[in-house]
Automatic annotation (TrEMBL):
This is Aspartate aminotransferase family protein. The keyword Zinc does not apply. PROSITE patterns: AA_TRANSFER_CLASS_3. Belongs to the class-III pyridoxal-phosphate-dependent aminotransferase family. Signal peptide: none annotated.
């Protein structure tokens, strides 16, 4: 077989891809007919594809390439660590410097007494760890019946059996008999889509109190934890009304329910603070981390655990759980270097003081567009809701996602990566994005919206 390289014609690469590569969250037959887009290079906020297009990546890959593409320091660190110690495990009373140094750094950065890290290879794995950890914790405290974990409909916590069960994605639950037992769900704080005639504040309180109702329904002695994303990401960048999180915190405190903040997207600067929990003013017992921990350069995730939970678990003997790649030295070294750069280059200050304010002004202005209802932005994660009638916060009559999908196709055609979730368009660009690049993002987004508007009007969808 000839070598498969970037220099091969796109059609040949696509044919090979279709023949042998099964893509995540993809209709394989449909993709095979169309051919996958082949990305060949990345630099800063820019991607290049096999046709030579220069694409602005408004999604930082999958919300992960926070430092942008092509950082030499991270490549150097990986190469150096591979030469020195490419792998060793952290089972059997063994450790190594990258795992130690990264855990200490994460403990320094994480708020409060979140001082202990259990490593995983991804966000999904880390959430599976969390399921086992919180059940083990309550058993160690003499409450073995506290096993149920409450998540939210339209939450996303990964694709493993555990992660997908904690999440509340109905399309995922429809396949393969999910959720697994011992997981319950409450509604999401999405006022735009579900708030009806209520004020956002009242709606936020109502959705928070569903947690209390669920705890009372199941019995306080059966509920181990509540898991939620500080800002829902894959669900469409849903920002809870201001009343929501204080009430959730009150309920978790009152009933002694562990609060797990899934910071896989919101961690490491995305919301303008190190962690989304700080932006939302919550005090979780456990945080799930991945993605921005290494800026996506290598796979790594983990759970940051508070002193009390860590001490209780430590006192209970062996926690029978772990992954071959827990604390992988190359991943840990790259993550540590990524955190060093985030800190020394003041990237989070850049998000808070420069990129967010600049993008916020231009993003909010998109709400003037005839297709756009609300425009939301927290730090550098944003969404716009597409609607045929702003005043009524109406949905398109066509199958959910059709208009969003069409808008995303226009974005692709205009060399912008913007994702759609149903009829919401979402962005999460690299945190290092500069004002002039934000201008390009907005110009391409507006052009794509204009084209979508014209096309759906012509098709009689408005
Ligand atoms: N939690 C959240 C909040 C996520 O957004 C994701 C991934 N999008 C995950 C967990 C799962 O992470 P991974 O894909 O690394 O398993």
């Amino acid at each position: 077989m000839t070598a498969i390289t970037n220099h091969m014609p796109t059609a040949e690469l696509q044919a090979l891809d279709a023949a042998h590569h099964l893509h995540p969250f993809t209709d394989t037959a449909a993709l095979a007919r169309k051919g996958a887009r082949v990305i060949t290079q990345g630099e800063g906020v820019w991607l290049t594809d096999s046709e030579g297009h220069r694409i602005l990546d408004g999604m930082a890959g999958l919300w992960c390439v926070n430092l942008g593409y092509g950082r030499e320091e991270l490549a150097e660190t990986a190469a150096r660590q591979m030469r020195e110690l490419c792998y060793y495990n952290t089972f059997f009373q063994t450790t190594h410097v990258p795992a130690i140094a990264l855990a200490a750094k994460i403990a320094e950065l994480a708020p409060g007494d979140l001082n202990h890290v259990f490593y995983a290879g991804s966000g999904s794995e880390a959430n599976d760890t969390n399921i086992r950890l919180v059940r083990h914790y309550w058993a160690a405290r003499g409450k073995p019946d506290k096993t149920v974990i409450i998540g939210r409909r339209n939450g996303y916590h990964g694709s493993t059996m555990g992660g997908a069960s904690l999440g509340g994605m109905s399309a995922m639950h429809r396949q393969g008999g999910l959720p697994i037992p011992g997981i319950a769900h409450i509604g999401q704080p999405d006022w735009w889509s579900e708030g009806g005639e209520m004020t956002p504040g009242d709606f936020g309180l109502m959705r928070a109190r569903e947690l209390e109702a669920k705890i009372l329904e199941l019995g306080e002695d059966r509920v181990a934890a509540f898991i939620a994303e500080p800002v829902q990401g894959a669900g469409g960048v849903i920002v809870a009304p201001e009343t929501y999180w204080p009430e959730v915190q009150r309920i978790c405190d009152k009933y002694e329910i562990l609060l797990i903040a899934d910071e896989v997207i919101t961690g490491f600067g995305r919301t303008g603070n190190w962690f989304g929990s700080q932006t939302m003013g919550i005090r979780p017992h456990i945080m799930t981390i991945a993605k921005g921990l290494s800026s996506g350069y290598v796979p790594i995730g983990g759970s940051i655990v508070c002193d009390e939970v860590a001490a209780t678990v430590a006192a209970a003997g062996e926690f029978a759980h772990g992954y071959t790649y827990s604390g992988h030295p190359v991943a840990a070294a790259v993550a540590l270097e990524n955190l060093r750069i985030l800190q020394e280059d003041g990237v989070i200050d850049h998000v808070r003081d420069v990129a967010h304010p600049y993008l916020a002004e231009r993003w909010q202005a998109l709400a003037d567009h005839p297709l756009v209802g609300e425009a939301k932005l927290v730090g550098l994660m944003g969404s716009i809701a597409l609607t045929p009638d702003k005043a009524k916060r109406a949905r398109f009559a066509s199958e959910a996602g059709t208009v969003g999908l069409r808008a995303r196709e226009r974005c692709f055609a205009n060399d912008l990566v913007m994702r759609h979730v149903g009829d919401r368009m979402i962005i999460a660009p690299p945190l290092v994005i500069r004002p002039e690049e934000i201008d390009v993002l907005i110009d391409r987004a507006r052009k794509s919206l204009d084209e979508t508007y014209a096309a759906i009007k012509a098709d009689g969808l408005l």
